[in-house]
What does this fold into?
Amino acid sequence: VGDGPYLAELKKKYNDVIFTGYKHGDALAEYYANADVFVFPSKTDTFGVVMLEAMACGTPIAAYPVTGPTDIIINGVNGAMDDNLQIAIEYALDCNRKNVHKISKDYTWENCTKTFVSNLQKIH
It folds into this structure.
């Protein structure tokens, strides 16, 4: 799901993959919900909202153990992290989807705002 500057190159390299293009709203949620695992392959994104979107649909996350994923993934509960994504995927498959969805509710705008303000108050 999605596109980007490497789309043509990826289509050539992975001709057995279906590239759906950009999706949003209910259509995107359906893709998340139908996935067994959401793989977040970045080692440099500081935070990926896509991880929260997938979790809101009950889909566990597989990622590298770097900043971003380490902030929201509890290994074996809502996803898995490993330096080898294949291993992370295998562990993430064992996560209970209801628990994944439940944890996603910790990241509402209201909760995130409270955490942000609380952290600001600590340094002021």
Observations:
- The chain is about 50% helix and 5% strand.
- The radius of gyration is 16 Å.
